[in-house]
Amino acid sequence: MTTGSQTEFETVIGLEVHVQLSTQTKMFCGCRNVFGSAPNTNVCPVCMGLPGSLPVVNREALRYAVRIGLALNCEINRYIKFDRKNYYYPDCPKNYQISQFDMPICYGGHLHIPVGDGQLKKIGITRAHLEEDAGKLVHAEDASLVDFNRTGTPLLEIVSEPDLRDPQEAYDYLQNLKLAISYLDVSDCDMEKGSLRCDANVSIRPAGSTAFGTKTELKNMNSFKAVRAALEYEISRQHKVVLAGEEVIQETRLWDENKLRTASMRSKEEAHDYRYFPDPDLVPFTLADSEIEAARTALPELPEAKFQRFLKDYALTEYDAGIIIQDRGMADFFESCAGIFDDYKKICNWLNGSVLQAINERKTTIAQLDISPEKLTDLIKKVDDGTISNLVAKDVFLKMLDSGKDASAIIEEEGLAQVSDEGELEGIVDALVTDNPQVVEQIQSGQEKAIGFLVGQAMKKTQGKANPKMIRELITRRLSNG
Amino acid sequence: MSIITDHDVRYVAALARIHLKEEEVGQLQNDLEKIIGYINKLKELDVSAVEPTSHALSLENVFRPDEVKPSLAHDKALAIAIEQRDGAFKVPKVIE
Ligand SMILES: [Zn+2]
After folding, report:
1. Is A252 within a domain?
2. pTM assigned to the model
3. CA distances (Å), A426 to each of A270, A464, A467, B19, B94, in order?
4. With an 8 Å Cβ cutoff, are A24 and B86 in contact?
5. Are both A466 and A347 inside the same structural domain?
6. What's the number of domains chain B is made of?
7. Are residues A348 and A409 in the same domain?
8. What sign for the dihedral angle of Cα B56, B57, B61, B64?
9. Tell me: the pLDDT tens digits for B6-44?
10. How open is the CA angle A383-A452-A352, to the nearest 5 degrees?
């Protein structure tokens, strides 16, 4: 049990996550929705807010929003409208952002996070609403430069309930939220490109109290780890403020990744008064029950369900299943392998080992890697039946990726098959025993581990081709015979 | 009675980025007073049986398919910029 100030307070955290939807075009106009174009090349009168232009809702963006809402266990509003959120800033050409005020497309959902011992905690999702992204500002020495390419990109803002109690829970919530969305093919969820962004609201209160303390809003975190670090810093700052008898001020604070601290934004702007009102340029829309049910049916199996099923159907460990389900393509690949070869643990070891390593090193995906479930399981079988050692198999695997050939072809062409010929192996063992009298002594005095050294030497001499199991047996037999 | 205070007028003007002369504050206070008074009059109507509406048109579900349409040519898009640099709109610096 901890003592001192840490036990006197409880932390309350709520997160606002913005997800850019990966539609072909923007939310209200036909401009391309892509990252990385030259400044102001994907712009038109609508997204630049020129007089006389009129926005029209992208049907696909609505579908994506419904898909995310359903995956997050939300209710979907049948009647929805858009509102104007008014503010002046150079990244916002119309001087208002089209958003949703009182009728968000999704509300009342939840997501689970792990809290140890296989237990799950339910984190409420208050709402998720559609809106348009703002432009990008680059600040030069003497001026700010505005690029409107991002302006009008469809965004879903997902607001959690203040159910998170520490920075790690916030981190886990973000991980699981991103994972769930990544299964839906609606966003690339890439924080580096800004397609996933997170702001955090945090306050502290005396433990056991139900009233909320004054919260601060944290911005400018560009990774989940940064969100966790910013929250840790901010919570300890608030503790100090309160323990010094002062009051936490409600404000926006920016995370400084270099100095590892939050600092008040000290905006000169008066308190925000967004004066929301219905956007007269956009008519309301209704969603039919049939459409929502169709979207629900079309949802893939979500990571949480897949995780539980993998534990049950394939007896995977939580660790193995947890890694496999991080990528939907990998999970599908695993299941295809499992349909061909029934040593699930071995498949998992390969996927979470050599395969994942190759994906990371080559910065690619399982789908783009030149390997099929058939080819991989064939390779695993070659280890299983003693044709090649595990060590050689790792090498064969890389050669398979580079050449597209299957395991048998590579093993044959390069003469990699394991030497299981007893006569040949006995010769190797004889030589080793003669060359390593001290090791032999150690083994004979009961140091079993020393056998491993001799096996290793045999593997080295044969470039990994000796059958290690047979070598071990031969050494044991030979030394016990004196 | 006054519904609209001197402060309200200045606050709304600030939000709308309008600079008011001193004498205009009083005038606008009067005008807004009348407008709000009229709204209050309307509020006396019993509308409890009427659905709230956000639109005068009885249109619904106006959508567009997710298809790319040509954007503006870059030079045309920037033609309205008062100042530009590196293909971007140049504006007075907004931070620090
Ligand atoms: Zn546009």
Report:
1. yes
2. 0.86
3. 87, 16, 12, 99, 80
4. no
5. no
6. 1
7. yes
8. negative
9. 999 999 998 888 999 999 999 999 999 999 999 999 999
10. 40
The answer to whether residue B96 sits within a structural domain is: no
Interatomic CA distance for residues A132 and A21, integer angstroms? 10
User: Does residue A426 share a domain with residue A396?
Assistant: no
Identify the residue among A79, A102, A144 best suited for mutation to test binding to B, counting B beta carbons within 10 A and taking the highest: A144
User: Would B35 be classed as within a structural domain?
Assistant: yes
Encoded tokens for B2: 């006054």
* Same domain? A111 vs A225: yes
B11 domain residue, yes or no: yes
Phi, psi of B69 (to 5 degrees): -115, 155
pLDDT digits (tens, 9 = 90+) for A74-125: 999 999 999 999 988 999 999 999 999 999 999 999 999 999 887 999 999 9
Domain of residue A464, residue span: 422-480
Pick the residue from chain A with its C-alpha nearest to B70. A31
Range of the domain at B32: 6-43
Residue of A352, A344, A353, A401 lying closest to A377 (CA atoms): A344
Q: How many CB pairs under 8 A join A and B?
A: 128
- Residues in B lying within 8 Å of A, measured between beta carbons: 14-15, 17, 54-55, 57, 59-72, 74, 77-78, 80, 83, 85-96
Contact residues on chain A for B90, CB-CB shorter than 8 A: 143-146
ipTM for the assembly: 0.87
What is the rounded distance in angstroms from the CA atom of residue B79 to the CA atom of residue A45? 12
